[in-house]
Design brief:
heterodimer, A: 255 residues, three-stranded antiparallel beta sheet, 10 helices, globular, B: Leucine-rich Repeat Variant, 0% strand
Chain lengths: 255, 212
């Protein structure tokens, strides 16, 4: 992750939060604790810096593209019987992978004919824990039609809704560091990866490494969807641009 | 409703391969197929001693995918030796390879930066042009003065144009006199005069409205 001078306040505020959280009376004291990774402080520190602002059905046009074009393209080259694997990384608190699951159930007529494995992963282990719980407030559900909220959630109280168990069990959550190759490889190969709004936080080298890791995590011919302000062409020449009616995505060449 | 009809562990194909040791990396770089060379190039980033082998591999590599991994490995090793291994590829006849080399240097900017002033004086105009792009993309307190010095002495208008483009991005008020002198020197080269006019306007507007 790279933070410019303009982000000084953002960094300071989070460092101070962690100093308070660990009852460190000086930065030197806290820095020593961080370097020695006392009680997993590195993970806590990383968690403090991640941005977990998202909502259901964000960038819906990519979901439309998934069911209109991407899955059909994958099925033409996948051996029959192999599961379709979709990776949402980073998945934050789970809104994106659950959105993919709901979208498929609602919009893909072949949903019952294939095993579909959806994996949500994030470096922020607190976010992953919340994703597993699957409880959301009104703001996260603002784009989801009320009909779908009624169908896939149960009201916890007046202010939060819990994903139904069946749907919750359709998504597997893991912790992952996108620039750690050994870590990403463990997740296997995917047909479609949603990797939105994370590469912009990396420096050049980390972006290259992450792009190469994602390349390895895609089956030949598999697709990767980035955030609407991102361009893989500026990060790495490894992928082809694939233009569809609803979205521009990137594709690992077949060979 | 469940999307999975059998346990995920049975459905998930595994890709984790055993880690390569240094000898296996060198062997695969030299004699592997495309997939093996790609894997070896990625693994080579953990072996700084592999820099010469990465350079040899780059010189012969035909696959753009593997080449990308070779450049990345050198960038991750990030030593002066890896910079020196990449520099000859700035002279490649293939524009794609020149760009890949330049991108790899940008990915290890702290180690690559000391080489940039030398590249700005290279006898080859296309290398000097690439160096101007590096100056633009590697923020440094001396970047503006390096471009200004080049503008005062550079005979090739295309190299000057690259430096002008860099100054349009990173320039400050101190760059304006050098830009004007360059415009005077190349009055007979309309495209350069035009570029300089745009750059001067841009620098002036940045001076008046500095970005946060």
């Amino acid at each position: 992750m790279i933070f410019t001078e303009a982000k000084r306040y953002y960094v300071e505020r989070r460092a101070v939060d962690r100093m308070l959280g660990t009852r460190s009376d000086s930065f030197e004291h806290y820095f020593g604790r961080l370097r020695a990774d006392v009680q997993g402080e590195i993970e806590q520190f990383v968690n403090a810096f991640t941005v977990n602002e998202t909502y259901f059905y964000r960038e819906e046009h990519q979901l439309v593209c998934l069911t209109s074009d991407l899955l059909a393209a994958r099925l033409t080259v996948k051996p029959r019987g192999e599961p379709i694997r979709i990776w949402s990384v980073p998945c934050s608190t789970g809104e994106e992978p659950y959105s993919i699951a709901i979208w498929l159930l609602e919009n893909w007529p072949h949903v019952d004919e294939y095993d579909i494995e959806i994996v949500g992963s994030d470096i922020d282990t607190d976010a992953v824990a919340l994703a597993r719980v699957g409880v959301y407030g009104k703001r996260a559900l603002m784009r989801l039609p009320a009909r779908l909220v009624d169908k896939y959630f149960e009201a916890d109280d007046g202010a939060s809704w819990r994903i139904l168990d069946d749907l919750r069990q359709s998504v597997r959550f893991t912790a992952v560091n996108l620039v750690d190759r050994a870590n990403t490889r463990l997740h296997g190969k995917f047909d479609v990866i949603f990797c939105r709004n994370v590469l912009i936080y990396f420096d050049d080298l980390a972006r290259r490494t992450a792009a190469e890791n994602l390349f390895e995590n895609l089956s030949p011919g598999g697709f990767i969807c980035l955030g609407h302000t991102e361009s893989m062409s500026r990060v790495s020449p490894l992928f082809d641009v694939a233009r569809f009616a609803d979205a521009i995505v990137y594709q690992r060449p077949m060979r | 409703m469940p999307l999975i009809r059998k346990p995920p562990s049975a459905a998930a194909p595994q890709t984790a391969a055993p880690a390569l040791d240094a000898r296996a990396v060198l062997e695969a770089l030299a004699r592997g197929n495309d997939d093996e060379r790609w894997a070896a190039a990625r693994a080579a980033a953990d072996f700084p001693a592999a820099v010469p082998a990465l350079g040899d591999a780059l010189a012969h590599e035909k696959s753009p995918t593997v080449r990308q991994a070779l450049f990345s490995a050198l960038a991750r090793i990030a030593t002066p030796q890896s910079v020196e291994t990449i520099l000859p590829f700035l002279r490649s006849d293939d524009a794609l390879i020149r760009t890949e080399a330049s991108d790899a240097l940008l990915a290890m900017r702290d180690v690559a930066w000391p080489f940039v002033p030398v590249l700005l004086r290279d006898p080859d105009a296309s290398v000097r042009t690439q160096a101007c792009v590096l100056v633009r993309d590697m923020p440094s307190p001396v970047a503006v003065s390096l471009c200004c010095d080049l503008l005062d002495s550079e005979p090739d208008p295309n190299v000057c144009a690259a430096a002008v483009e860099a100054l349009a991005e990173i320039g400050e008020a101190s760059a304006l006199p050098a830009l004007m002198r360059c415009a005077d020197r190349f009055r007979a080269t309309p495209f350069l005069e035009f570029s300089i006019r745009i750059a001067i306007d841009r620098v002036r507007s940045q001076v008046l409205n500095p970005r946060a």
